[in-house]
User: Which sequence fits this backbone?
């Protein structure tokens, strides 16, 4: 889903805000769950929010809603109005711009979810001998109830039998912290009392046509007023033909949403794109996945299916993401991006412009860092970002933007302090850098050295251009986009973050650091996240000392008479080797183990198992294995990202790729025509101008891959058509 919006003629809201001072923002909600919030637009009744937002819908939903709020300093933000579009209507508005009138935001109409009910109508004989009808209402469960303040709710239900002269109500138990509560409670209601067997006297007879079962869902607020979650009403007469009725009911607004016509609250212009993919069985995608996953092995890389996909869809920034996920899941990302980066470097003439453009390589690495480096960012930056946002010190140093009473020297000190904290957090975070990112950085460093052998700094600028300029600096500038903050920061804090981000970009640039003291810190950090400590030196003059100190070595086996039990050794650990000799000093063994673990995390030869005990008297004391070369008996601590593969649905990603290829079928055809023309005519290129938009190094190999893609797409389309036909003629 992609969209951007603006509003006009926003109406007044209750509260202290005057209309001409209206500061507003817009939120996007999937049912009642907020998924995006724009920045605040100052003092305008016709704000242009102009923010593009792309997100994948992770679950079933009923409505996509847009709320306009007036920002309030001293109380809760006040709703101006909303636009709600039901899921079934999204395709109607997809790909076009529309003006929607804002509707009143009524708390009793903000509902979502459904309830599962079973009702029975039965005849009973009472103790005094009279007969009557009873209704049993079994409330089984609810699904997809809304989040309350971003958390699962504490729901309970009330069940009522409502008629002209009665309203009997019963209540379920409260279920804690769930949007899908299972109640499994049954309630009984007496419907009619018709006559006594002894007296034949008609006591009472109710009109069943006027009775209904009403179920209300509430969130238990303990000390505050409970929040209405929705209701449903079922007429009792439905049981006259069938005495047992069981069904799901969508929750409705209170009173079925009946309300008077609202005032003119203004309008909201939206441009949204809604795409719904139908995922086929896994076997259908095997040929496409196989072709994409062998891309790193194709020579040249420009003739591979993955490169062709990025080439024909280069204008669409969301196209790379499913491909990156697929490659990550199958451990094929590093060889692919290395080959693509090598191709880009072949076309780079100046070392100082390395990886500065928006190419396929940079887009792939950007998306990879967002997926793989999410926790790394949180551990490294979130504490200091939270401190900056909560302390709210003024850091403005531009004389034009200074406010009355501001002291530029104090502001400069504040900014320097923040920058130092952020930069220190980054440069001290190498041990937390995910191994996959280290693998990519190591490859970029090697490729840069190979392309520009005469420039000793280019290997570091290749890494720095990503980790500083495209990762940390961007996260500082927009912390909400990386889940470091829940919403856009306020304008003043946003300005502070902008200044910090620009400074980090400058500090992260290798050229700007070459004459500064920070050069050493910067060098150590870049070296640690891109070195391969298990292989030979990459050409650095001096090793980086990570830790050194004295430890005590205990003698193993039987101790000869007069021999000391412990020996002192001075250990020195660098990013190249571990050495020891005699010297004075003390250190902790635990510290040594921690640093050793950190520095070896990217070691490609790192063993998967180890022996927790020593080898003496011809056997390992832990497992009694006789061979000194026996594999370890216990697993080493894992360093790979947890659940990386579990979060990726390859079938879904393959279907998304198929949809993107289908939407760009004309470009695929143009690329085929370009390959055919280039293969026949080997002289100077005289093809139509659109041919130059494609990267074609080997026309025959590229043409062969395009034909394979074409055949796979035709088969996938045939499978979709078969399932569409079955759904059309076989459904009720």
Assistant:
């Amino acid at each position: 889903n992609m969209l951007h919006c603006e509003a006009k003629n926003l109406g007044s809201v209750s509260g202290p805000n005057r209309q001409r001072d209206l500061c507003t923002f817009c939120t996007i909600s999937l049912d009642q769950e907020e998924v995006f919030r724009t920045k605040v637009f100052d003092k305008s009744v016709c704000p242009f929010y102009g923010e593009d937002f792309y997100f994948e819908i992770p679950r079933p939903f009923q409505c996509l809603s847009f709320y306009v709020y007036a920002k309030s300093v001293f109380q809760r933000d006040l709703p101006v109005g909303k636009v709600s579009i039901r899921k079934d209507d999204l395709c109607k508005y997809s790909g076009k711009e529309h003006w929607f009138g804002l509707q009143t935001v009524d708390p009793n109409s903000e509902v979502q979810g459904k309830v599962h009910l079973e009702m029975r109508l039965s005849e009973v004989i009472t103790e005094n001998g009279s007969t009557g009808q009873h209704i049993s209402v079994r409330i089984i469960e609810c699904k997809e109830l809304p989040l309350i303040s971003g958390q699962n709710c504490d729901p309970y239900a009330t069940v009522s039998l409502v008629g002209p002269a009665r309203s009997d109500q019963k209540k379920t138990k409260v279920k804690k912290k769930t949007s899908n509560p299972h109640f499994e409670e049954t309630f009984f209601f007496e419907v009619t009392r018709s006559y006594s067997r002894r007296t034949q006297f008609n006591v009472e007879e109710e009109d069943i046509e006027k009775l209904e079962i009403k179920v209300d869902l509430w969130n238990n607020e303990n000390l505050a007023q409970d929040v209405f979650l929705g209701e449903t009403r079922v007429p009792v007469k439905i049981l006259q033909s069938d005495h047992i009725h069981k069904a799901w009911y969508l929750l409705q607004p209170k009173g079925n949403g009946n309300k008077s016509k609202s005032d003119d609250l203004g309008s909201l212009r939206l441009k949204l794109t809604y795409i719904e993919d139908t995922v086929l069985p896994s076997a259908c995608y095997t040929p496409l996945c196989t072709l994409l996953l062998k891309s790193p092995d194709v020579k040249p890389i420009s003739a591979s299916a993955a490169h062709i996909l990025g080439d024909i869809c280069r204008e669409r920034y969301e196209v790379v993401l499913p491909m990156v996920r697929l490659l990550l899941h199958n451990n094929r990302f590093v060889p692919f991006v290395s080959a693509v980066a090598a191709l880009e470097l072949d076309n780079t003439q100046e070392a100082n412009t390395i990886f500065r453009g928006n190419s396929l390589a940079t887009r792939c690495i950007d998306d990879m860092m967002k997926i793989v480096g999410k926790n790394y960012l949180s551990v490294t930056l979130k504490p200091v970002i939270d401190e900056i946002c909560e302390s709210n010190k003024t850091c403005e140093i531009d004389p034009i933007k200074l406010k009355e009473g501001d002291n530029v020297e104090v502001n400069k000190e504040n900014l320097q302090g923040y920058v130092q904290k952020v930069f220190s957090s980054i440069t001290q975070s190498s041990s937390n850098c995910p191994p996959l990112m280290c693998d990519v950085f190591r490859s970029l460093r090697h490729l840069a050295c190979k392309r520009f052998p005469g420039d000793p700094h280019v290997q570091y600028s290749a890494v720095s251009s990503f980790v500083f300029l495209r990762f940390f600096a961007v996260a500082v500038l927009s912390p909400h986009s990386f889940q470091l903050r829940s919403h856009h920061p306020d304008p003043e804090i946003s300005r502070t973050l902008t200044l910090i981000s620009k400074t980090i970009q400058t500090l992260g640039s290798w050229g700007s650091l070459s004459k500064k003291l920070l050069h050493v810190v910067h060098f150590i950090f870049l070296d640690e996240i891109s070195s391969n400590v298990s292989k030979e030196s990459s050409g650095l003059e001096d090793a980086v000392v990570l830790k050194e100190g004295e430890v005590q070595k205990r003698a193993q086996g039987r101790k000869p008479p007069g021999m000391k039990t412990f020996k002192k050794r001075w250990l020195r650990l660098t990013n190249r080797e571990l050495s020891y000799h005699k010297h004075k000093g003390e250190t902790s063994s635990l510290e040594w183990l921690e640093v050793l673990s950190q520095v070896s995390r990217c070691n490609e030869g790192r063993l998967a198992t180890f022996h927790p005990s020593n080898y003496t008297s011809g056997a390992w004391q832990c497992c009694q294995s006789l061979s000194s070369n026996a594999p370890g008996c216990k697993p080493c601590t894992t360093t790979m990202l947890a659940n990386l593969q579990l979060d990726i649905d390859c079938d879904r990603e393959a279907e998304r790729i198929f949809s993107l290829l289908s939407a760009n079928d004309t470009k695929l055809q143009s690329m085929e025509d370009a390959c055919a023309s280039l293969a026949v005519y080997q002289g100077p290129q005289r093809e139509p101008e659109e041919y130059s938009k494609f990267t074609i190094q080997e026309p025959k190999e590229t043409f062969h891959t395009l034909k394979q893609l074409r055949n796979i797409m035709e088969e996938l389309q045939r499978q979709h058509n078969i399932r569409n036909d079955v759904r059309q003629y076989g459904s009720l």
Notes: The chain has a mean pLDDT of 79. The longest strand covers residues 182-195. Residues 3-102+264-272 form a domain with the Immunoglobulin-like fold (CATH 2.60.40.150).
